[in-house]
């Protein structure tokens, strides 16, 4: 296993307002808009008939933000505050999504494992350095496109102050991953938040080795084994830098 220590680059704080890149945020508990009818990502249902996905492909572009705050996690370093929001009409509970994000980012195998970074979820837009969004494929594509990123409604992305998780990937994962949906969800949170913390893409270090968390594992493992964490056995695990979005 190829390991080396490196100080994670930290970006400056980015304060988010109640409206970010034209995407409206509302408080959790507001009446949700009914789901929009999906029109892509259909699969085969009973008898070989085409069945719609179990989630909306398009939504209203309005988000409910989680209330409350998490404990401060991490032992030292700058405190990065984040907010969590779920697009209305997705059928996903914002508190459950927030709890998963909190669990991932608060794990010592995540970015706080450096000992030089702390994180905390907050409810106030003005206090947050970045927001983690769960968005339908169409909405996530529109949001990512504002930063010049092409996702084809398939991948998640990160823009300054915005970590945008594609609902389809959150619910379905990717076919080749073979490590379970929970592991994929952990990976995608750590990967996109890693970009927010200044991390770049990395390559698979070798066949049957763990994939670096900054490898684009959604597109393929390139012979590596799925890995969702930046720290393995307490040591920063990395591959060589590579190009890509």
UniProtKB/TrEMBL annotation:
Looking at the record, the residues that make up the DUF3152 domain are 54-222
The region annotated as signal peptide is 1-23
SUPFAM superfamilies in alphabetical order: Metalloproteases ('zincins'), catalytic domain (SSF55486)
Keywords from UniProt, A to Z, are: Signal
Protein name per Swiss-Prot or TrEMBL:
DUF3152 domain-containing protein
Task: Name the species this protein comes from.
Answer: Micromonospora halophytica
């Amino acid at each position: 296993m190829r390991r080396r220590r490196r100080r994670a680059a930290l970006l400056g704080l980015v304060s988010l307002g109640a409206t970010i890149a034209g995407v409206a945020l509302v408080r959790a508990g507001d009446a949700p808009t009914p789901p929009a009818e999906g029109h892509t990502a259909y699969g085969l249902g009973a008898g070989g008939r085409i069945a719609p996905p179990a989630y909306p492909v398009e939504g209203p572009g309005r988000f409910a933000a989680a209330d409350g705050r998490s404990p401060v996690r991490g032992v030292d370093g700058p405190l990065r505050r984040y907010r969590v929001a779920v697009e209305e009409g997705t059928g996903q509970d914002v508190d459950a999504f927030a709890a998963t994000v909190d669990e991932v980012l608060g794990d010592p195998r995540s970015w706080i494992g450096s000992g030089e970074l702390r994180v905390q979820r907050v409810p106030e837009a003005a206090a947050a350095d970045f927001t983690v969004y769960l968005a339908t494929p169409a909405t996530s594509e529109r949001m990512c496109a504002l930063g010049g990123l092409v996702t084809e409604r398939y991948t998640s992305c990160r823009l300054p102050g915005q970590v945008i998780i594609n609902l389809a990937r959150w619910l379905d994962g990717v076919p080749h991953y073979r490590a379970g949906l929970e592991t994929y969800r952990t990976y995608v949170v750590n990967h996109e938040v890693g970009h927010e913390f200044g991390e770049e893409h990395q390559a698979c270090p070798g066949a049957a080795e763990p994939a670096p968390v900054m490898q684009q594992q959604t597109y393929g493992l390139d012979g590596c084994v799925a890995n969702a964490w930046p720290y393995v056995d307490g040591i920063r695990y990395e591959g060589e830098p590579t190009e890509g979005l």
